[in-house]
Amino acid sequence: MGLGTEDRNRLAKRAAAEISNGMLVNLGIGMPSLVPNHLIHARDVMFHAENGLVGMGSAPDKGKEDAHLCNAGGQPITIRDGASYCDSTVAFGMIRQGLVDITILGALQVSEAGDLANWIVPGSRVPGMGGAMELAAKAKKVIVLMEHCDKTGMSKIVETCTLPLTAKKCVHMIITELGVFSVTKAGLLLTDIFAAASISEIRKKTGASFTVSNNIHILQE
Questions:
Q1: Positive or negative CA dihedral for 159, 163, 164, 170?
Q2: DSSP state, residue 167
Q3: For the chain, which terminal residue's Cβ has fewer other Cβ atoms within 10 angstroms, N or C?
Q4: Closest Cα to residue 42, out of 26, 58, 23, 68?
Q5: Do the beta carbons of residue 88 and residue 65 sit within 8 Å?
Q6: This prediction's pTM
Q7: Rounded Cα–Cα distance for residues 209 and 119 (Å)
Q8: Which of 35, 143, 49 is nearest to 92 (CA)?
Q9: What is the DSSP secondary-structure string of 21-87?
């Protein structure tokens, strides 16, 4: 069924907490596009889009969309003061030069080593990998927002990815509706859990081993 609006915004809000003033941030399609709606303390942030825009704002109010303004996924956006337009070559040049501080992406699978699979399910028709491969390889920090399990109930956090990889050992943080994992050299570390979840539930639904932080944070609803 997918996550509801409240859950999706809860994940986006937690991801927004990782953003600091002065950062250049790239957002993937879907849940990541909700992140600008939840920036509270970090005001001096520029959101980057591969289709040629630096300076995306929050989503427009219904009925106030501008057909000329969209992100790389074609979703309507607003722009903030100081925004700059460019062609996609320049936008990708920013990525390839390592200028993106954080990229927030969706995923089909993430391994305990931080491998990312987010672009294809074998046998399915998809438009292509897009900029995910370059973002995963070049962004200073890669954050994944995703449902903990797929539609069949299988964990999307796995020991080893079984789907085609986008990039190896690139993910730094995973945020799901159950909790937040940091990808460390020693493996996955559970740092936060949402109040409605429990550590035992997370262990049951996670297809990879992980340790629990001594200072685990309970995220309120």
A1: negative
A2: B
A3: N
A4: 23
A5: no
A6: 0.93
A7: 24
A8: 49
A9: TT-EEEE-SSGGGGGGGG-SS--S-EEEETTTEEEE-SPPPTT---TT-B-TTS-B--EEEEEEE--
* Residue 80 identity (one-letter amino acid): R
Q: Per-residue pLDDT tens for 191-209?
A: 999 999 999 999 999 999 9
State both tokens at 198: 């429990």
Considering only the C-alpha atoms of the chain, give the largest distance between any 2 of them, rounded to a whole number of Å. 49
Above pLDDT 70, what percent of the chain? 95
The one-letter amino acid code at 180 reads V
Q: How far is CA 147 from the centre of its chain?
A: 11
* Neighbouring C-alpha atoms within 13 Å toward the C-beta of 143: 25
211 strand-pairing partners: 189
Which helix (H) or strand (E) segment holds residue 91: the answer is: helix 88-96
| CA 165 to the chain's CA centroid | 16
Residue 112 to residue 89: CA distance in whole angstroms: 33
